[in-house]
Amino acid sequence: MRVRLNPAFLFLIPALTLILVFYVVPLILSVYIGFTPLQRWNLNRMGSITAYNFERLFYMMFHDPDFGKVIRTTIVFTAFTLAINVLGGLGLGLALYLMDEVLSLPYRILWLLPRMTPVAVYSLLWYYFFLGGEEGTLNSILLRLGVINEPLSWGTDPRLLPETAWVILILVNGFVGVSFGMIVFYSAFHSIPREQVVAARVDGATTSQIVRHVLIPQVRWHIVYVTVWQLLSLLTTFAHIFLLVEWGAVHRWWGSTWALYVFNVAFKTYEQGLAAAAATVLVIIGAILGLVALRILKFKEMMVEPKGEI
Amino acid sequence: MVEVRLEKVTKKFGRVIAVNKVDLVFEDGKFTVLLGPSGSGKSTLLYLVAGIYRPTSGKIFFDDKDVTNLPPRERNVGLVFQNYALYPHMTVYDNIAFPLRLRKEPPEKIDSKVHEVAKLLRIEELLDRFPSQLSGGQQQRVALARALVKEPSVLLLDEPLSNLDALLRLTIRAELKKLQQKLGITAIHVTHDQAEAMSMADKIAVIDQGTLQQVGTPEEVYLKPRNLFVATFIGNPPANTLTGSVQTVDGTVFVEVGSARYQLTEEVSKIVREAGVEKLVVAFRPEHAKIVESPLVDPEGDLVLEGDVYVVEPLGRENIVTLIVAGMPIKVVTPPDVKPHSSSKVYIVVPRNRVMLFDVETGLNIEFLIREIHQKIPD
Ligand SMILES: Nc1ncnc2c1ncn2[C@@H]1O[C@H](COP(=O)(O)OP(=O)(O)OP(=O)(O)O)[C@@H](O)[C@H]1O
Ligand SMILES: [Mg+2]
Question: Given an 8 Å threshold on Cβ–Cβ distance, is A198 in contact with B52?
Fold first, then answer.
């Protein structure tokens, strides 16, 4: 018997090829490299298989103070930025929904600006804001107000670390990420029939009761989506952080996340094997956290078919 | 229960005048239907009563209490929407209980009230379901239950039947009317379906472009439409209209429509002469006309029109005959055995007391014109 292929499969081949070449192969390759002592692109070393990189990573977690800082930064950065992205996005989306349409449009554009601005330009704005000298925006404001007597190096001053470096990272990324949640939640609120809000009002609900009992419960699935999506992108984001570290706006270790660390190990110290191992661990952590988030937020429950006839 | 009274209520949205100086009384315990075409301001009027909108000017009273500036919460109204607006994330039980929970009523009281109203609307076995698991008719009942559970003083219904199929609509129409009578609640029902309005209403208020056209019982609105809009909006098929010119021969005043002459009464003649009216619209309802083969010898002053049969539509219980009179299509409802041949020449006879005359300029029924003129100039 011959296996008959569904002709629809033909149409999927281009997309599947792309996924295979640019995602599956690099993924497998990356995991594989993690098990080789590859260094300085010396491909001859790729032959031998070893778990050394993972052992070293594990050892570093507990004994390398710099790597320890990176891990703590990653946890704090991800947790707080995620909270800002989801809760801030929800709050903004809600505010926009309750606001007059005339006001809401310019407001939406304002919040989208950080996302529309090129990464380097946007990061540069923050760089100048937190700049160490008297010409730094924050310093000059605080000096004028008399809050501080001398300019501070906000991201690097050992007296202020690590919190200030973390705040800088969280602010810079929070403002970019918050617009994603805002757009998703704003459109989600708008897809709820207006009559439901009117009905609740007639039934005597205050705005806050409408928000709690009518609006928020109906965007639960959007909250799950934004949370998981932002969690995974925060674990891997590094463009803004890379520039801030590179320009010396934040401390080298207190301002680095795991993703940036992978990049630095691969392309600065040329330990590709170690970098690949670190990347693999990050992917695994991301997958686990993502699943846990879905579980906590009861994703499955939402995907089941409705019971009974419609 | 309360009487709802609107005094010169106007609502503007920017430049759009959605409701224009409406004076209207919704009688206590009566079923009033707001009838009008799409965009005429029916929903806006309802929302004004509910307190969702504040009027731009004018006042709203519930009995003697001025509620113009009260929020919806303090008006105690129940509202049902065309799309039902049930909360999809709550069960039927929670949907119905929601207004009571907002009032912070004790749980036992909420429970007994929910079951009571569910029993009234026969939806007790649906209480555990979600709205997505209900049929349109069931959702409609739940929406009604949610509105009634608060024991509102006014029940507002915004086209609640228009999402149902034709057959179900007829059933629920009757049920809704019966329920309203049983509860004795003041009800305001919005619809653009004139048949629905005729069948349910104690009083019909016809509205067009935000302006009230006529208020009256279904019979009044049907048989004595105040203006051309009401005459042609109500009835299926609506009233026929023909424009004719006013002529005076030997002191007698006629309207000439096509080849026919229709003599006016003394009273109407006087009005026409005084106001210098040159054109009148002659109108009659399709079921008030008769088709005959030859002109009557003594028409007794009835309206007799000559027409060519255009098409006959048999509907079983009756036929609708379309004729061309003076170049205009005219519809006549006939018994099922009257089937004139296409393009044959026949005569349409309308009894004198069924003929309606309208002023071309204002669209006003001449009878009302007389009355309204008398009202304006006392004695
Ligand atoms: N919130 C609003 N903002 C601006 N214009 C509005 C608003 N609500 C209604 N209008 C306008 O007011 C007029 C009356 O609208 P309304 O909804 O009361 O009509 P309706 O009689 O209920 O029509 P339908 O049968 O289609 O529901 C329309 O011209 C509409 O465009
Ligand atoms: Mg409407």
Answer: yes
Please give the CATH architecture assigned to the domain spanning B4-233: 3-Layer(aba) Sandwich (3.40)
Closest CA to B43 of B11, B1, B90: B11
**Tell me, what's the pLDDT at B280?**
92
Q: Which amino acid is at A298?
A: K
Q: How far is the CA of B159 from the centre of ligand 2 (A)?
A: 7
CATH number given to B240-376? 2.40.50.140
- C-alpha angle with apex B320: B316 to B321, nearest 5 degrees? 135
Write the residue with the smallest CA distance to atom 20 of ligand 1: B39
pLDDT of residue A302: 57
pLDDT of res. A301: 62
Q: Which residue has the higher pLDDT, A294 or A226?
A: A226
Residues of chain B short of pLDDT 70, as ranges, are 296-299, 373-379
pTM of the model: 0.81
The shortest CB-CB distance from A308 to any of B51, B89, B129 is to B129
Does A199 sit within 8 Å of B85, measured CB to CB?
yes
Sheet strands (E) in A79-176: none
Rounded mean pLDDT of chain B?
A: 90
Supply B65's token pair.
Answer: 């209490």
Q: Which residues contact B240 (CB under 8 A, 6 or more apart)?
A: B283, B284, B285, B286, B289, B330, B331, B332
* CA angle, A122 then A128 then A131, to 5°: 135
pLDDT single digits (tens) A53-87: 888 888 888 888 888 899 999 999 999 999 999 99
Look at residue A306 and tell me whether its pLDDT is greater than 70.
no
Domain boundaries, chain B: 4-233, 240-376
Whether B246 and B253 have beta carbons less than 8 Å apart is answered as yes
Contact A204 B79 (CB under 8 A): no
How is chain A split into domains, by residue range?
19-301
Handedness of CA A4, A7, A10, A11 (dihedral sign): negative
B303 CA: distance to closest CA in chain A (Å): 50
Amino acid at B234: I
* Class at the top of the CATH hierarchy for domain A19-301: mainly alpha
Which value does ipTM take for this structure?
Answer: 0.79
The residue written with tokens 């009878």 in the block is: B367
